[in-house]
Amino acid sequence: MTTEPEVLCRIEGRVGRITLNRPQALHALTTNMCRLMTDALLAWRDDPGVELVMFDHSGERGFCAGGDIRMLAESGAGDGRLAREFFFTEYRLNDLIFRYAKPRIVFMDGITMGGGVGLARPCRFRVATERTTFAMPESGIGLFPDVGGGWYLSRMPDHIGLWLALTGARIKAADCELLQIATDYVDSSRLPELKAAILAAPQRTEALLTEFEGDAGRPTIAQHQDEIARLFADESLEGIVAALLAAGTDWAGEQLKILATKSPQTMKVSLRQLKLGARCVAFAENMAMEYRIGARIVQSADFIEGVRAVIVEKDNAPKWSPATLEQVTESHLDAIFSPLSSEEEWSPLP
Ligand code: QUE
Q1: Structure pTM?
Q2: What's the angle, vertex CA 145, arms to CA 142 and CA 146, rounded to 5?
Q3: Which pLDDT band, with edges at 50, 70 and 90, does 61 fall under?
Q4: CA 145 from centre of chain
Q5: Confidence band (pLDDT; 50, 70, 90) for 349?
Q6: Residue nearest (by alpha carbon) to ligand 1 atom 2
Q7: Which uninterrupted H or E stretch holds 184?
Q8: What is the pLDDT of residue 44?
Q9: Is the pLDDT of residue 143 over 90?
């Protein structure tokens, strides 16, 4: 019996092509997939035959749902070694794509969440389609918006990145363009033709994208941008909740209902992560911070409970601990963000 690799890495013409190939799990990333992609990117870095790197996925459903959450939770419930190994490997890959000297193009044709965002966002050309659904949904499972969320989300205008992190809101292509999550919009029916044209002439990628550019429609976030800017501006989460309560609009009420279902620990971690990420000068500095958080959070009660409630048993009724925002103290957060021992700290690929 032959088993297909979880990610296909090959050279087509002058393009290094990486196709996620774990369709039964919506291409959720495993440590093995991250290693395969890293090895290919390192081999192509100095290969003059490779001009462009292309990321896409096999089959019809979504680009990438995130990470192998069940494995992470099982590991986290034990010694956490495999979970830390996954984050270490995944963040090195995120950082490698970020500083890669050759152009990268990604097709976010469908679900692009969590770990998928970590692959897509550092690409130079980021193509959305009418099937694109973007989110950082980790607050719903007691994880945190990693893979560079501290860097990218904190650099979005009007606190929209914080809103995405706290609520896990799902957004479509036009919003992705507004937030520069996507650089281009192409109707999914035209992707086969566009990909073939790029594979035949990678040096024409930018012109081809202009030629194939479609209309993503109106961004829905625009309607709420002023409200997000005003209501998600406070320095503290308690302040943000108070602002939403005081606003008294339907939209603010909906946001409060959503936040009431999310992990208080994750929400406070996310706020501090974005504050620190905004101040990072190098992307790798942000990733080292996120690795510290990940190493702790993966063994926390909330992550184990969140995966149980949302992914495994699907009762969608997680019991968070600490149960309220007030109970998540600054000293609890200090422990999550504190440096690891020097052997354990994250470092970029040499
Ligand atoms: C938060 C997450 C993930 C999630 C749901 C969340 C995540 C992830 C998946 C997922 C979805 C479908 C699959 C699969 C995994 O869901 O990271 O294998 O088939 O991978 O609320 O972070």
Answers
A1: 0.97
A2: 115
A3: confident
A4: 7
A5: very high
A6: 138
A7: strand 184-185
A8: 98
A9: yes
* Residues acting as catalytic residues: 67, 115, 138, 146
CA–centroid distance for 198 within its chain: 26
Ligand 1 atom nearest 140 alpha carbon: 21
Domains and CATH numbers, the chain: 7-337 (3.90.226.10)
> Ligand 1 centre and the CA of 67: distance in Å?
7
The single residue listed with the structure tokens 């296909």 is 8
Distance CA 213, CA 207 (A): 10
Pocket test for ligand 1, best of 24, 61, 69, 138 (most atoms within 8 A of CB): 69
Condensed to tens digits (0 to 9), the pLDDT of residues 234-276 reads 999 999 999 999 999 999 999 999 999 999 999 999 999 999 9
User: Which helix (H) or strand (E) segment is 17 a member of?
Assistant: strand 15-20
Task: Give whole-number Cα distances, 254 to 233, 244, 266, 296, in Å.
Answer: 18, 9, 19, 31
Q: Which protein residues are within 6 Å of ligand 1, measured from CB?
A: 25-26, 28, 65-67, 69, 114, 137-138, 140-141, 143, 310
User: pLDDT by residue (tens digit) across 156-193?
Assistant: 999 999 999 999 999 999 999 999 999 999 999 999 99
* Structure-derived torsion over alpha carbons of residues 139, 106, 62, 157, reported in degrees to the nearest 10: 30
326 CA to centre of own chain: 27
